[in-house]
Each structure stands twice: as C-alpha cells, then as structure tokens.
Amino acid sequence: MRKGATLVEPGDVATPVEGVGNYLPKPDILFISHCVPNPPEKGEKIRSFHLIHYLAQRYRVHLVCFARAQSEIPAANALESVCASVYVELLPSLPALIRGGMRLLFGGCLNAGFYWSPRMKRHVDAMTRQTQFQAALVYAAVMHPYAPSGVPVLLDMQDVDSEKWFEYAGRRFPGFLFALEASRLRDFERAGAQAADCTFLTTAREEALLRRIAPGAATGFMENGVEVRDWNGETAVPEAFAGKRFIAFIGTLDYYPNADAAQWFATCIFPKLRLRHPGLEFLIIGRQPTPQVQKLGALEGVTVTCSGPQTIHCFRPGRCGSAAACPRDSEQSDRSSCTRPQSLRLGSCLSHFWKLAACRCGRMFLGERVHSPPG
Questions:
Q1: Are residues 97 and 122 located together in one domain of the fold?
Q2: What's this model's pTM, rounded to 2 decimal places?
Q3: Residue 215 and residue 277 in one domain
Q4: Nearest Cα to 86, choosing from 59, 70, 66?
Q5: 200 and 130 part of one domain
Q6: Which among 347, 332, 186 is positioned nearest to 258, based on CA atoms?
Q7: Side-chain half-sphere of 4: how many Cα atoms within 13 Å?
C-alpha cells in the first residue's frame, strides 16, 4: 500500500491549451479499479491496463485498486512508473465473502458488500481533499460507491453483470439466492449508471441492455479486442500445436460462463465437427481449469492445457488454427469470454472513449470547454 504525490512536480510534461500561449501541467484524474490492472493477462486487466497507459500520456493518473492476492501487490506498485500515485489494498476472499453475505442478508447487494472497504473510502476522500481531480474513472459498477462527490464520474461498467446472475439463477444451485442477488445487483447497477456522468460498456448489445434498465443514463460502448500489430511471424509455434488443425477456446477456466461454454462445445458441437473434419482438434487453454473442465481432456480430440500467453502466437494470420467463442445460445453470444485476433488501434479507440465522455459530461478536459450534444 502506498500513497503517492498529490502535487504537480517540476518537470512534469505539460499539456498545450488551444488558444493559450503557455502550457499547463497535466490535469489529475482518479482511476478506481476492482482489480490490479497489471499484468494484461485476462480480460478485465487487459482493458484497464491499456486505459491507464493511454490516459497517463495526457493526465496524472492516481490509481486506487484492490489486490485479490498478496502476489498482485508488486504488480500494482509497478504501475508507479506511469501513474502519479498508486494505492493498492489487499482484499482477502473469505472476509469479503462473509461481508457480502451479511450485506445480502440485511437487504443489500452481495457484490457491493464484497468490494466494500471503509479504509479505501477514507483514502479516496483524503485524496480528493488534497488533489483537484478533473475526473474520476470508475472501473466496474461495484466500485461506484468510492466515486468522490463534486467530481465528474465516468463509469466503465464493462457489462451488465446482473444479467449473468439472472442466468445463474436458472442453471445453478441455489437458484433463489442467485435470483435474489441478481435483482439487488440490477438495482445497484441502475443507481450507479444514473449517478455517473457517463457509463461505458464493451458492446452495443450491453449498452442497449443498460439503457433499458436505466432510462435516461448517458451511455456509450467501447469494444475489446486483441492487439495483433506485434505478430511478426518470428515467434516459434509451441511444439504441442505444430502441424495441427484445431479450434481453441481461451479463457480463465474457473469462471463459470467460460467453463460452461467449453463443456457445451466439447460435448455438443465438437463431435459433429469432427465427423465432418477427421483429425480436427479442440484445445481448451487457460488457467485454473475446474475438475469438470479437466475431465474433458479424456474426450477424443480434446486437449486441456494451461499454456501461458505465448499460446496466442498459434493464431497469427497464416497459421492453421482459430480462436473460438462458444456461447450456449444467442443471448450469451456477447457475454462469453472471447479471444479473437483482429486489428485494433487502441489509441484511437480510447481517444474516442474519452472525448465522447468529455462531451457528454460537459466538463473541462485537456484545457477545452466542451458541451453535451443536443438531445
């Protein structure tokens, strides 16, 4: 845990202001995250990692985040090289789950209780008194209670998580508890979106869902992707994949939607594909596979592996392989974790994200006064 500088230091890169003959120091922004945005090895960390690095070129970013394990704290502190300050707080799972369960028992939201820390709230409030933040970017709906008052708030909700909990209610035991939390979480998400100056999601479909849930909320979406510009063809293909024709599912394998999708594809779809394409293989790649996922390795043509990030080089253009998302139905197609090679100009995407947010907030960013568009 560390509390960094709160004042502009000599030598900071300055930001030019249009129509003004001098330079102003970079403005300060607050980035509040439910996870350590480093290293960029899974969806939520990839998105936040690139957000922080892009914004740090234009702002003094003050990061406040939770670490789910002691081993994540050094990774958070490593971001001091790009952030003006870093505060990381350990969030042990068992006490957080007990706290969330008590919150649910007494009429609140389990997810909100899980991520609640009076210590973090006090830290954010103290920072706000010491530093004039131009904006706060809240990464995940559960972190919205930490948003400081009197500061423009951009909520990167990513997805409407309550929809997942409603799906859990129909598939997992005990369904009534999942349904209860789904309802509480939906109310929580609605309140967060309506309180924020602008809320962003990862797809147009998720944005449309939020707009139905939270009428009147200012919303937008910024899609995820995979950066492929560094794939130069020089990295050797791992021996396990050389010369094979395969379909691959890549994701964290103890996450229920991922595990469920991998099992469904391996048992319902892949056998039919293999009849039409003898020799085709299905690779399930990811960390922490559940026992049910591990058992899939006994099926003909199915391999379960925990190979690391280098695995992605199997999917360079020109390789005989593809990465597949495996939703169970059309309603899940936007909700399943997906690794899909595509060209992604991240800077342009984030620039659009921030400029759109600035316009909708009608606040001062980068030295320019902007206004909300008509309507």
A1: yes
A2: 0.79
A3: no
A4: 66
A5: yes
A6: 332
A7: 22
C-alpha–C-alpha distance, residues 293 and 305, integer Å: 10
For residues 260 and 248, what is the distance between their CA atoms, to the nearest angstrom? 15
- At 170-226, the pLDDT tens digits run 999 999 999 999 999 999 999 999 999 999 999 999 999 999 999 999 999 988 866
53 token code pair: 């690095």
Q: Find the CATH number of the domain harbouring 148.
A: 3.40.50.2000
Alpha-carbon distance of 261 to 101, in angstroms, equals: 28
Reported in sequence order, the residue ranges of 212-280 that DSSP labels E, i.e. its strands, are: 219-221, 246-250
Instruction: Give the chain's end-to-end CA distance (angstroms, integer).
Output: 44
Angstrom CA distances, 314 to 260, 280, 308, 317, 354, stand at 24, 15, 12, 9, 33
The answer to whether residue 8 is domain-embedded is no
- Is residue 254 predicted with pLDDT exceeding 60? yes
CA distance readout (Å), 230 to 226, 310, 317, 345: 11, 13, 12, 12
217 lies in the same domain as 299: no
Asked, for residue 126, whether it belongs to a domain, the answer is yes
Task: Give the C-alpha separation, 373 to 375, whole Å.
Answer: 6
Tokens, residue 223: 């899609």
Q: At 322, list the tokens.
A: 């593809």
* 43 has pLDDT over 60: yes
Strands (E), 140-259: 153-158, 198-201, 219-221, 246-250
In the structure encoding, which two tokens stand for residue 258, read together?
A: 């991922």
